[in-house]
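Chapter review: from sequence to fold.
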Amino acid sequence: MSQANPSFHVESSALRADPHVVQLALDGRLDAEALPELLSRLEEARAAGCSRFVILLENVSFIGSAGIGIFLSLVEEMKNESGGVVFVRVPPSILRIFEVLNVIEFLQIRSDPDEALRNLLSPEKIPSA
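The token string follows.
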């Protein structure tokens, strides 16, 4: 049985604006030891029908390549399902990593959670019935 990583935590909260949107606030080092917790939270949200994610990164001090890979996979998966992922309050050090790895063009980044939510709920992002 794996132990929780004390240097990483994910807090999830549903957003009242839409039951298919979840906000994940990440805190700590997103390294290989943190991946099980992040994956578990993403799987829980997906199982609950969430297809839009607001991911707060302001308290992330480090992100490894596996974490970036998970983010890119999630972005692609949600794009294919007419969902979306917006990263919010990205620290300059993490933003620099995204730039150096040339992945920033694949990520939606906003400074404010409300702006991220508006982006996710814009008419062109919501599939028609």
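Two observations follow directly from the output. DSSP finds four helices and five strands in the chain. Residues 65-80 form the longest helix (16 residues).
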